[in-house]
Design a protein that fits this description.
0% strand
Length: 248
């Protein structure tokens, strides 16, 4: 149940307060009128839908890049462990390098830091290992390994790009401002349609429900565009993409 309530936050509380205060003031000062709400609806719904669609695509792309990341690591692991000339200790060394890349990069994605210095150093250790053991690694195997190292780097760079660059801040700010403004414009029109003499509870209910829907969609989009932080129902299960994953 706690996870389903994760879309509720300080923004939800603020909009609910607005949804109560603004109708109260409108009734208190008898403010009601009739305007076409099409434009104000378009000002919120279209950008919000665009942002949600963009966040969903980011999540789907992230799954694709994570799959490529793990498959590249596993293939490199298989290649190195199939080389008969490499000693057991050398195989253990490269296995630890691959495991360290897997663990550190997955942990990096789950955090807010954008510093990739350590990740770059750890991935370079694969190439250093190849150079240090050139005599024991056949040239044909080396070429194949380097090809999958390229795929590994490509998946890492793509995931770093997704992790660093998110939905344009200006678009999100635009949506949020109009969601906050919406009750101010919407309330007098609802009072006019329902009738000032009719029960006020109906107006309160409609305003609160409308604001709750809009801010909940905004919060869902905000969570979905952070698919790695392990906060939210739709976040990616990063542990499933580690090289040594354990499926429960």
């Amino acid at each position: 149940m706690k996870r389903y309530l994760s879309i509720l936050n300080h923004r939800t509380l603020f909009t609910l307060i607005l949804s109560i205060v603004i109708p109260f003031l409108a009734f208190e000062f008898e403010i009601y009128y009739h305007i076409d709400l099409t434009l104000i609806s378009l000002a919120i719904i279209f950008p919000l839908v665009f942002a949600i669609r963009g966040a969903f695509k980011r999540r789907e792309k992230s799954l694709q890049f994570l799959s490529q990341f793990r498959s590249s690591l596993k293939t490199i692991y298989y290649f190195f462990n199939s080389i008969s000339k490499l000693s057991f200790s050398k195989k253990e060394e490269i296995n630890n390098i691959l495991l360290e890349i897997s663990e550190s990069f997955v942990n990096h994605l789950s955090q807010s830091s954008h510093n990739t210095t350590e990740i770059d150093k750890k991935t370079e250790n694969i190439f250093k290992f190849i150079l240090d053991n050139e005599e024991d690694i056949p040239n044909s195997s080396k070429q194949k390994i380097l090809r999958f190292v390229r795929d590994l780097h490509l998946s890492i760079e793509n995931l770093i790009a997704v992790h660093t660059h998110r939905t344009p801040i200006s678009l999100k700010a635009y949506c949020l401002i109009f969601i906050y403004i919406f009750p101010t414009v919407y309330t007098p029109t609802i009072i006019n349609k329902i009738g000032y003499e009719n029960p006020h509870n109906i107006t309160y209910f409609i305003i609160i429900l409308s604001e709750f829907i809009l801010i909940s969609l905004y919060n869902i989009q905000d969570q979905m565009e952070h698919p790695f932080d392990r906060d939210g129902l739709d976040d990616i299960k990063l542990d499933n993409f580690k090289i040594d994953r354990i499926v429960e």
